[in-house]
Amino acid sequence: PLEPVFATRDNGKAILDVPDSFYTEQYAEVKEDIQNRFGEEVDVKIPIKDLRLKPNLDFTSLLTKRSQFSLFYAPHRRIAAQLIQLLLEPNNEEDFIALAAYVKDRVNAFLFQYAFAVAVQHRKDTAGFQVPVIVEQFPKNFVEPSVFQDARAEGKLVPDPGNRRRIDIPQNFTASDREEEQRLSYFREDIGVNSHHWHWHLVYPGSGPEEVVRKDRRGELFYYMHHQLMARYNVERFCNALAKLQPLNNIREPVDEGYFPKILCSLNSRTYPGRVSKTKLKDIDRDGRVLELADIERWINRVVQAIDQGYVTDSRGNNLPLDEVKGIDLLGDIIESSDLSVNSGFYGDLHNQGHNVISFSHDPDNRFLEDFGVMGDVTTAMRDPIFYRWHGYLDVLFNRFKEKLPLYGPQELGYDGVTVQRADVRIISSSKNIINTLLTYWEKSDVDLAAGLDFGPGGSVYALFTHLQHSPFEYLIEVNNNTGAPKRGTCRIFLCPITDERGTPLSLNEQRQLAIELDKFTVNLMPGVNKINQSYDNSSVTIPYERSFRRIGTGHLPNDPQKLAEFRFCGCGWPAHMLLPKGKPEGMPFELFVMISNYEGDAVVQRNNAPDVCGDAASFCGLKDKLYPDKRAMGYPFDRRLPADTLTALTDNFSNMKKTPIKILFRNEVVDRKRN
Ligand code: CUO
């Protein structure tokens, strides 16, 4: 019984056998019909014990079953925090399952999915549990709606899942070529990208019980993960002949970017509301909840002032310095803001409320009874071009702080006696030896939609979605260790753009803010020359396709709890197929930057030496129940100003760094890859 709470319907062959007292009023009368209907098709009935005390769920009543759940909205966050607390309380697995089964049909489905997943993530006795991947559970939030009709029809007409046609998810369905921003829709609407973002916010809840929220360097990671999203998006814009985005630094100016999502909200089957171009953001006055743009501006001013004076003031009036070590972490929690903000009364709820103001801009006073747009929900926010302008502005604030820190000097950057002699990339191919040119193209991959279809067909129905992909490649690195003794270091690999969309060269200070982290790993250096071959698929930012898109089917679950825990936690991670930017048909020049930093400045002493559960996207997601595995500031060495004017001058000054010009070549071809 590994995913009992979700096994009630068509996604498995098990059903929960719940006590009569669990049925809600609505279903009590048709209880037997329900049991018969689902009972026939299942192999296993999982007995669920009765609850001695039924929890009072009135605290969730503000969020009805049909309304949209938003993690950016403080009252919803508080409800979720309370539900997480409730689900953490049972002393054993059996009681937890019973409680979850009881709660499931009594609260909003999105709220449940979120709180249940957070609880499973943080309980000690649920290592063997699996939470289905989000795209299977709420596929409507990720996929163009016409696909569902086809999928249902296919399921009805073709009983044998093995013979079913795979249904194409259309690409480019949200706008025509008239809309420039449409060139980036493959990035913004990528299922793996949005799934990663949902998982990140699941692993790092902003509110909840202390043990769930307080994680090592969580505020800094909020900054860094989103900063990397911005760097990637801007570089992707250059590849598509678009200028760097304009940060949303004036919330009074009409917003140029419109967006019409077309996807359906899973809970009420309405489409997410759209936003016309040149919409003006307005004060929000809905359901007795008022949010003024002036509030957001005040919070911005206070944050800017804190950055400029070099300290923040906590709620008791103490001044806390914004220093090199803790400064960015304090700011991350303040700006987001999470429960860890040292003074949310004063610095407010800046980032979250920005999402809200934008997500309600089509109906700020609820006169049309419209729900929030995609910006209101972490599963969908990255689809909207304005996400990048808002987070782009937050990134400006974070960078304002970073620019105030002293330049990195030789002390922090150098590694005496260590020389990087070679830093190349090679496409992994048995026939050709292609060095320093990487290839991208389109690929079609399948994703199983059946689990999320209401009363859907038995077995899987695969849909095909088209996404960017790159040829497999490896880094070929040679490091000379002249010290005469074995040494350790961290190999840090970044991809730096050289020019903007018009071919104008970028300064080092611009490059550093656009540098894309590709990989980071520990190396042991023997005296003499060390050859390091590192494959792209070991990247410290990505997870493989299977983890974004596949749960392990019921019945095929590995017995090893470790493996199971991996599959769950590890939905967090940038999708491997998006590791590289698209490049250009004629080849787009980049610089590959490789650095070996001195391990003495990198090493972290972990609190426990349990094996890492899902260490492979640690740069973006950290490690489960452990400290962030790199002591340096996130983004090092590019998080601060550097003591050089160009990347060439920098790498010439430090033997432990090397840069190599490479090209990314895009082929406008589609490769169909069947993965099951
Ligand atoms: Cu991830 Cu604004 O924080 O969406």
Descriptive overview:
The chain has 676 residues and is α/β, with parallel strands linked by helices. The protein has three domains: 4-126, Hemocyanin, N-terminal domain; 180-185 and 215-404, di-copper center containing domain from catechol oxidase; 410-428 and 472-579 and 592-661, Immunoglobulin-like, CATH 2.60.40.1520. 32% of the residues lie in helices and 18% in strands. The chain has 23 helices and 18 strands. A seven-stranded mixed sheet has the order 3-10-9-18-17-12-13, with helices on both faces. Strands 8-11-14 form a three-stranded antiparallel sheet, with no helix packed on it. It has a two-stranded parallel sheet with strand order 1-2. The longest helix is centred in the middle third of the chain and has 22 residues, at 218-239. The radius of gyration is 25 Å and the shape is globular. The chain starts with 13 loop residues before the first strand and ends with a strand. Mean pLDDT is 88; it is low at 1-12, 551-559 and 561-568. CU2-O2 cluster is lined by residues 197, 201, 226, 351, 355, 378, 381, 391.
CATH topology tier name of the largest domain: Immunoglobulin-like
Write down the overall mean pLDDT: 88
Uncertain segments: 1-12, 551-559, 561-568
- Count of DSSP-assigned helices: 23
Head-to-tail CA distance between termini: 24 Å
User: How many domain units?
Assistant: 3
The total beta strand count reads: 18
- Helix fraction bin: 25-40%
Q: Compounds present?
A: CU2-O2 cluster
> What is the CATH architecture descriptor of the largest domain?
Sandwich
Q: What is the CA-based Rg, rounded?
A: 25 Å
The biggest sheet amounts to: 7 strands, mixed
The neighbouring-strand order within the major sheet is: 3-10-9-18-17-12-13
CATH homologous superfamily (4th level) name of the largest domain: Hemocyanin, C-terminal domain
CATH structural class of the largest domain? Mainly Beta
Outline, from the CA principal axes?
Answer: globular
Proportion of beta-strand residues: 15-25%
Report the structural category: alpha/beta
